[in-house]
Amino acid sequence: MEIMSRLDKFLKDAETEINNTVSLKSVQELRIKYLGRKSEIVTILKGLGGIPSDLRPKIGMRANEVKSYIDKILIRREKELSNNIFNTLGDKEKIDITEPGIKNETGHLHPISRMRMEVEDIFSSMGFTIATGPEVELDYYNFEALNIPPDHPARDMQDTIWTVEGSLLRTHTSCVQIRTMEKFKPPIRVIAPGRVFRYEETDASHEHTFYQVEGLMIDKNISVSNLIAVMKTMLKSVFRRTVKVRLRPGYFPFVEPGFELDINCLICGGTGCPVCKQSGWVELLPCGLVHPNVLKAGKVDPREYSGFAFGMGLDRLVMMRYGIDDIRLFHSGDLRFLEQF
Ligand code: FA5
After folding, report:
1. Element (H, E) at 321
2. Of 86, 89, 117, 313, which sees the most CB atoms within 10 A?
3. Residue 186, Cβ neighbours under 10 Å: how many?
C-alpha cells in the first residue's frame, strides 16, 4: 500500500531530523515542516476523501497516529534542548539563580575631604567664602609678607621643603591671607582649606603632608571677642557638643597678640596618650589678631581696619572627631581603615 509506506517514510524522516536538531529555533522550523499547513501529513489527511472507502479508516487512523507522534517528539526535543542550555555550559558557567548577587563596591570620600566640606559649610553659614592658593609657593607669601623676613628665627618654626631659590612647598595656609588681601578690599571673611608640607619626622600626631584651614576676617573694630565667638561656634558645630578648650599665649610673627587654642584630647579624655603627648590637650588651632605689618603687606590700612586669623589642623580635627589615634593612618591607603567611614 503505497500511501502507508509514504507515511512510514515520513515518520522516519521526521524522527531522524527532529532528534538530530540542536537548536530551539530549528525545532520550530521542523514543526512547520512536518505539521504545518503545507506539510505532507496535512496533505494526506486532506486527501482522505479521495481514497477508496474500505481503505480510508485504516489510512486515516495511521495518518493521525503519525501526526500526534511527531507532535510528541517535537515537544520532547524542545524540552531537552531547553534544559541543555544550562547543561552545555561549563561547570564554572552554570547559573545558580538562587545565589545572592555580588555587591558592587562603591568608593566614598576620604574622611579628611568630608571634614573639609563640613567645615566649609559651617563657615559659609557664618558668611565666609572659600579662597585658594598654590601649593608651590613663593618665599614672599609663605614668609616675608607674613612678617618673617629672611634670617628671622621664626623660619625655623616650620621646617621647609625648598624647591628652587625663593620657591617652596607651602608650610602653612597663611600665605592665602596675603593673596586674598591683594585681591579683595575689606570687609574680608574667608577660609582657605588646603594641603601643606613640612620636612618633619612623622609620629602619631605629625605628618610631613597634612591639611590646614586658614581663616581670615578683616573689618572695622574686629577684636579677640569676635575671634573667640567664631571659634566656639565652629567647634560646637563640628563636635555637636561643647568641647573643653583652653586659650594660651602663642607666638607667631604674623599675629599680635597670638594664641594657641587647644582642645581637651578626645582620644584619652584628657588623661594622657601618645596623641596629646601625655598632656591631655591637643594643639589644634593657633590664632590671633592680624599683625599691622601683615595688613600693610596686603595693602590694608591698619589704622582703619583690624582682623583676626587662625590656622586649624584639619587632620587633627578629624582625629578628635572619630577617635583616631594615629595621623599616619590617613595616608596609609589601608582599606580596612578607610572603609570604616
Ligand atoms: C601655623 O601653621 C600657622 N600658620 C597658624 C596660624 C594661622 C597662626 C593664623 C596664627 C594665625 P602651626 O605650625 O602651629 O601654625 O600649625 C597649625 C596647626 O596645624 C597645628 O595646631 C596643628 O593642628 C597642625 N599641624 C602642625 N604641624 C602638623 C603636622 N606635622 N602634622 C599634622 N598637623 C600639624
Report:
1. helix 314-322
2. 313
3. 19
- Per-residue pLDDT of 128-186, as tens digits, reads 999 999 999 999 999 999 999 988 888 888 889 999 888 999 999 999 999 999 999 99
> How many degrees, rounded to 5, is the angle at CA 10 between CA 8 and CA 14?
120
Angle at 251 between CA 247 and CA 253, to 5 degrees: 135
133 close to ligand 1 (CB < 6 Angstrom): no
What grid cell was written down for 70? Answer: 511527531
Strand partners of residue 191 = 130, 215
List, in sequence order, every residue forming a beta bridge with 94; answer none if it has no partner: none
Which residue has the CA at smallest separation from atom 29 of ligand 1?
A: 206
pTM as predicted:
0.72
Peptide bond into 193 cis (omega under 30): no
Atom of ligand 1 at shortest distance to CA of 177?
A: 9
Per the document, the length of the chain is 341
Nearest CA to ligand 1 atom 10: 287
**Whether the CB of 147 sits within 6 Å of ligand 1:** no
